[in-house]
Sequence to fold (1022 residues):
Amino acid sequence: MQPFVYTLAVEATPPSLQDNTGDIDRLKKAITAANGAVVSIPFSRLAPIAARFRKYGFKGAAVINDLPSGPRLVDFLAGPPRILPAMALDLGTTHLEASLLNLVDGRILARGNRENSQIEFGADILSRIHYAAKDDGLSRLHLAIVATVNELAADLALQAGEKKESIRALAVSGNTTMAHLFLGLDPAQLCREPYIPLVNTPDPFAAAEIGLALHPAAPVWVMPSIGSYFGGDLISGIMASGMDQREETCMLIDVGTNAEVVVGNREWLIACAGAAGPALEGGVARMGMRAGPGAIEHVEIDPRTLALRYRTIDGGKPLGLCGSGIIDLVACLYLARIIDIRGKFRQERCPDRFVETGEGLAFVVAAPQDSAGGEAVVLGQVDLDAMMRSKAAMYAILTTLINQVGLDFTDLNRIYVAGAFGRHIDPRRAITLGMLPDLPLEIFQAIGNSSLAGAGLALLDRQNRERCLRLVGKITYLELNVNQEFMIRFSGSRFIPHTDTALFPSVPVFD
Amino acid sequence: MQPFVYTLAVEATPPSLQDNTGDIDRLKKAITAANGAVVSIPFSRLAPIAARFRKYGFKGAAVINDLPSGPRLVDFLAGPPRILPAMALDLGTTHLEASLLNLVDGRILARGNRENSQIEFGADILSRIHYAAKDDGLSRLHLAIVATVNELAADLALQAGEKKESIRALAVSGNTTMAHLFLGLDPAQLCREPYIPLVNTPDPFAAAEIGLALHPAAPVWVMPSIGSYFGGDLISGIMASGMDQREETCMLIDVGTNAEVVVGNREWLIACAGAAGPALEGGVARMGMRAGPGAIEHVEIDPRTLALRYRTIDGGKPLGLCGSGIIDLVACLYLARIIDIRGKFRQERCPDRFVETGEGLAFVVAAPQDSAGGEAVVLGQVDLDAMMRSKAAMYAILTTLINQVGLDFTDLNRIYVAGAFGRHIDPRRAITLGMLPDLPLEIFQAIGNSSLAGAGLALLDRQNRERCLRLVGKITYLELNVNQEFMIRFSGSRFIPHTDTALFPSVPVFD
Fold:
């Protein structure tokens, strides 16, 4: 275990006429004597380190950043600290999630989250890339995200009884566009063919260099990307799942704005990404929402009585449907024969459950009097169509990828499902829809916010940092936008569960 | 030859859908392919480098800083430049001297010098150390020297038809106090027992970090010191003389504010320093002055007729005496028996050449009507006494040191004499005074401003930079302030040429 920042107890012989070595050189020698490391020192840290080394009587604890270019001495303390706080950050397009880790023992000191304040400049990645092209646009986006990170850091520090300036390191995991905006780098090429990032693997830098109000010498680790559509969040996901270290072949599915999928093992990894996400994250349906208070995450419909029950995340009155709620609902509607295999409403099954809206027919999940907002929670045909496209895209991505490597779904030892989607989804329902392959349920494993978890892993051990640098060179990226096979498979997947019902033996088929 | 900054021609395959590697990562790969170097990039240089790499069609010349911690990519040019300017700087207490080198071919593009603007805060090292202890004192001294260096850089750039922002590197050689003030580091411990520098060997840093108006990523190399009284200027001197690479044992004498002496060869080096300087640099005598226009650098007195002739450095009327002029004068006064072996005036030899001044008797070198200032150029008894102490200290330093290593002066293959002192001094006259040992004249070799020359060597080749880092660990420093032997030898040297005249067979002895 070599954390991103560590301390080393050192005790030097005090200076004398017989040994007139300079303070800084004396300290460097003592460090080399203690653990063999030959450290360099950033210029801005020379004076404070020398002053503290002298003040503490030439003994104490050296604070060292463990960088790929070598160990870097950044501070000197009176003695080894009990707590060395470091921040792991999932830099989402809409939402930031962070944890404060103690690098001394690996324990979590605090957790927090915050809305991405860049939203005022654009709700999605593409609108932000366009905004960045305006005068000052990039700078505004950069300053906004740095401000959000600083607020989140202050939150975490407060919870842990620390100051934000005592946060000694940061690891950031986000999609490629978010990483560019965080670094203040022009994202223009990310959305232009051939979709080239300005940088995949930035060298670590000091927090102060981008205006982060952590310890000024806190090193910042940005999870590397392998392309515009495959960011550091996915590298984190692979690390958190551990699939890159397993002998058995596994799959990782991360549904955010895009659906990103990786298949492989410790020998090889192949990845692709596609626009399957919005509906699944609750972003497309009119009543769709993030998994949070008031979100319906689970739905049951009795196929005989058609009685409907739902559960919100917080147990309160419903406001809308999150991704897993929509999947549950649509699967149940299918099993209750309220929608047909093409995903079209069969109003005649229960006419009183339907209403006409400005956008056409909609199925009522919760009546106005039962909802938190006083407005009915509904699923419209428009939402349903979007859902059908998303689920078709997802299954097409999965089959194209698995076919590409000459395997069958049954060859997979495990399918890791990342993110809020993975946490709330019921795989049985996703199989019913034909979105996930018809495999035994124990194959599916939710791994939570693996973007955040991967950032934490990078903070805690050099082996993980080296591992994510190696991953960049190890992953083969399959471009689906130019893939004919994907388009064919997409068409075949636009039925429930599929045009080829033999692929889903566990799902009942109705005429 | 690996200069401190070099360029590398690179040509990368342009990005495509088949190869979506990020711009920066593409460039790094191309560099590694070209010369095997794995470069890191300072955060602040990411955006400009990426922009230029793309603008120039993914080919051109990478600008790389060759740092001890590894190669660092700092810029990208359209093609290999003809000129890559770098500044070598001798950071003197009173005077700065600099040259602009072309790192492409090692040639000198320009030379310049400037008074050290810190003089307004204190004329000598000690007064500046005291000034630094005041409120804002250190900061004022730091800003003053940075401003002087910036002006000098602008001078050099102008001469060479370049901008100062195009100066790609700086190597600085100065005494330990000047190095601290240049770096903005507290020099307080330098003049307090046990005389400990804050740092001996600072890691290279970027010019912008201390407000230098060179290229912002220009690496700054500060010649390491081995103690308060043995600075980077001496390390430069050793390098410029080459004595650290020779099989034969040699000696280096550098007379500045102090007299600093090194003896040794490629196997070992021992050094000491002592306060022998001021009189020799023209700093003590009332009419003393730096070697420059109007300074009498050479004097002859006919021992029979007592006729006196002198020569000024510029051939014009005299203003005062520089160090070599004083040495010449005192040696001639002794040979003409106008002073005795104790260094006291014998007024009776030529009463008309003497005047009474407020400070006592003085010998007239140039009458008022012959001088540039309209005031007689004289040497007073007070000046003479100071000169005697200086020459005694010098010889005592040399003999203490040579004795310490169990050698005799005749074991020396060469005595290098550095600085303005070395350039102008006539070794024959210094021997007459008993200041330098009585050796064949060809043993003595003037090496000019070796502080500046050493800085240039560091700029031009990595081997030299590694060499000066090794020198720090190789030199044994002999502390004279606590040395009994030195005091005894000092007393014995307070006669002309010496109490033990057998040591100076070539010098005539009078009664």
